[in-house]
Amino acid sequence: MAPSAQSHSRNHSLLLLQKLLNLRDSASPLTLVLDTIEQSAAPLVREFMGRAKIARSKVIFISFATVRKPRDADIFVRGRGKTLKALKAEIASHCPPPSATAAKTGPSEKVLLIIDSLNPLASSTPQLLSAFLLGIVGPGVSLVAVYHTDVPLVLPKTVNEYEPHPLTILTHLATAMFRVSSLYQAVEKKRAQNRSLPEPEFGLGEGREGVLIGLRRDVPGIVVEMEMRRRSGRSVSEKFVFVPSLPGATLGPGGISLLSDHPLFAAPGDAEAKLTESEEIELMDATFSLGLTEKQRRDREGVVLPYFDAQTDVGSGEGGRILYELGREDDFDDEEDEI
């Protein structure tokens, strides 16, 4: 890929992620965030709420696992123990009616709905889950919902075994998906790949009983894999490194960069990228750095290659011929062609 095309692709991916996080132009009415016990989606959810707060959007937090109201939430709705009809009515009471949104508040008025866990709804009422989610999303209302992929889902007996899994339905309905994972684990796997070693296992993949080992905090940030579905049906996928702002710090967005641009994911030969043009030509076909000193480089340039005169035209049209003198250890075969 040409440098200009590569730069354009990188900028396009970053702008698209910014557009999704800022809920700009209703880029994604339904955003699904997939996480695991090894890496929670909480940092990304806080980023959604923080950016909505900066944009003066109303944030409604629907809780199934959160005990206390988040700092950036305007409305806190408890979802456990309520029917879908009652929960939908309570959410609708905090959202402006569609007519009022269009006539009075204008298109700039936005509402962000956050569901901290879809697993209870997917387990209790999987057949009504899609209708419920589509019913609470409307003009000016965007939904960001979290689903824990490694939590076992116990379906009711009324569900037919041939019906699609609730996660399959959610991934089909979502207009954008984010898969979050640990940056530390991704770095360790990348290092193993660079050394041609087996990738290490973390969390549940370790196969150990007791406390999960593998999630470390010494590498700040998380890996976010974005998948955006366009109206044409084409999807755009990219991986990013997201570094959230420190808790208690001044309200502001976190840092975002492409995974390929992160220093911990630099290729082993990237350190030679700053060499001069002549050195780049010399190292183009080399798999390691020659590390020659200036004296060694001058001595190498002064070496006369054997049979160097064969590279010049001797005046009889025989330039380029190979000259070879037999040694005592050579066994000359008369049937061979003359060298």
UniProtKB/TrEMBL annotation:
<keyword id="KW-0819">tRNA processing</keyword>
<dbReference type="GO" id="GO:0002098">
    <property type="term" value="P:tRNA wobble uridine modification"/>
</dbReference>
<comment type="pathway">
    <text>tRNA modification; 5-methoxycarbonylmethyl-2-thiouridine-tRNA biosynthesis.</text>
</comment>
<dbReference type="InterPro" id="IPR019519">
    <property type="entry name" value="Elp5"/>
</dbReference>
<dbReference type="Pfam" id="PF10483">
    <property type="entry name" value="Elong_Iki1"/>
</dbReference>
<dbReference type="GO" id="GO:0033588">
    <property type="term" value="C:elongator holoenzyme complex"/>
</dbReference>
<dbReference type="GO" id="GO:0000049">
    <property type="term" value="F:tRNA binding"/>
</dbReference>
<protein>
    <recommendedName>
        <fullName>Elongator complex protein 5</fullName>
    </recommendedName>
</protein>
<dbReference type="GO" id="GO:0005634">
    <property type="term" value="C:nucleus"/>
</dbReference>
<dbReference type="InterPro" id="IPR027417">
    <property type="entry name" value="P-loop_NTPase"/>
</dbReference>
<comment type="similarity">
    <text>Belongs to the ELP5 family.</text>
</comment>
<keyword id="KW-0539">Nucleus</keyword>
<dbReference type="GO" id="GO:0005829">
    <property type="term" value="C:cytosol"/>
</dbReference>
<keyword id="KW-0963">Cytoplasm</keyword>
